[in-house]
Amino acid sequence: MNDHPRIPLAGVLGHPIAHSRSPILHGYWLRRYGLKGHYIPIDVAPLDLAEVVRTLPRMGFVGVNVTIPHKEAILQIADIVTDRAALIGAANTLIFRADGKIHADNTDGIGFMANLRQHAPQWQPAAGPAAILGAGGACRAVIAALLEAGVPQIHLANRTRPRAEALRADFGPKVVVFDWTQASGMMEDCATVVNTTSLGMTGKTDLTINLDAINPGALVTDLVYTPLKTAFLTQAEARGCTIVDGLGMLLHQAVPGFERWFGQKPEVDEATRQAVLSA
Ligand code: NAP
Predict the structure, then answer these.
(1) Which CATH number covers residue 157?
(2) 169: domain range?
(3) Which residues line ligand 1 (CB under 6 A)?
(4) H-helix or E-strand containing 261?
(5) Nearest Cα to 244, choosing from 135, 111, 138, 129?
(6) Which CATH number do you get for residue 259?
(7) Do 127 and 242 belong together in one domain?
(8) Closest ligand 1 atom to the C-alpha of 139?
(9) Angstrom distance (rounded) from CA 43 to CA 53
(10) What does 13-47 look like in DSSP terms, one character per residue?
(11) 64, 13 in Cβ contact below 8 A?
(12) 1 located within any domain
């Protein structure tokens, strides 16, 4: 019989995983709050996912984040899936409960909203439609969050139109699909504009889009955070728009997991940003 309290372990499961900034972020918070615990990157091939996830609690893990390519597959393995994770069709945060059940949630939408609230406190989601570029996995969390926040309509354009149509089918008639070639025009009168494509990421081509129709009063944000200020954000800023980069979404989506696993709600502030940027 071992009476020593276990040091909580957490981590992030992905494939590959070396690029993940989550270990830097959680490690920074653990040191900052003087907490006992460890957070490690774990490379898991898709075929091994179920076995690894079932084994982790027996090794002292209290939960994990899940990233590409496991965010959808994990829903089939979890015992309890939150409504928002089910709606989004993906989970990024697992809690290994004391009763042995695996609880799966999606906190990307929380992160997305908290980032905008923090960096654009004057922004009013209900002030007008939102224009969204892209229709991939991250876009589903953004749509769910914006609709919940009271955005009256979503103008959605994706290079592969059927993916956007599928989102309309899932989220209902407030989502209006535009052709990718109409992406510029659909921004007119929108209070919010979001890039959810991977265009603009370091190593990819920039998102080049004509912003003549954009409302200078719009809030413009990009999910891409490497580089921090994408060409798209630079272009929007030149039009007078308020811009918010994507790093805050990454930081804020990590808060619920960290709080649950290590018992302390961590702060997302400039020191946190710098810790992640300078690592
Ligand atoms: P995904 O499921 O692979 O979707 C990629 C999206 O980008 C699709 O809409 C795709 O369009 C579009 N796209 C890719 N190449 C394109 C091109 N050449 N021209 C036009 N559209 C193109 O990826 P995801 O998980 O949604 O992630 C999207 C981006 O968000 C990534 O850069 C990711 O790093 C970032 N992200 C950031 C956070 C954060 O915390 N800030 C969180 C999640 C994701 P098609 O459907 O036509 O392929």
Answers:
(1) 3.40.50.720
(2) 122-249
(3) 108, 111, 134-139, 158-160, 163, 196-199, 201, 223-225, 246, 249-250, 253
(4) helix 255-262
(5) 111
(6) 3.40.50.10860
(7) yes
(8) 26
(9) 12
(10) EESS-TT-SHHHHHHHHHHHTT---EEEEEE--GG
(11) yes
(12) no
Dihedral angle sign, alpha carbons of residues 264, 269, 270, 276: positive
Q: Is 177 found in the same domain as 75?
A: no
**Letter string b/e over residues 115-131, b meaning 16 or more CB atoms within 10 A of that residue's CB:** bbeebbeebebebbbbb
The phi, psi pair for 39, rounded to 5°, reads -135, 120
- What's the gap in Å between 136 CA and the centre of ligand 1? 6
User: Could you list the pLDDT tens digit for every one of the 279 residues in the chain?
Assistant: 456 678 999 999 999 999 999 999 999 999 999 999 999 999 999 999 999 999 999 999 999 999 999 999 999 999 999 999 999 999 999 999 999 999 999 999 999 999 999 999 999 999 999 999 999 989 999 999 999 999 999 999 999 999 999 999 999 999 999 999 999 999 999 999 999 999 999 999 999 999 999 999 999 999 999 999 999 999 999 999 999 999 999 999 999 999 999 999 999 999 999 999 998
Residue 113 belongs to a domain:
no
66 in Cβ contact with 92 (< 8 Å)? yes
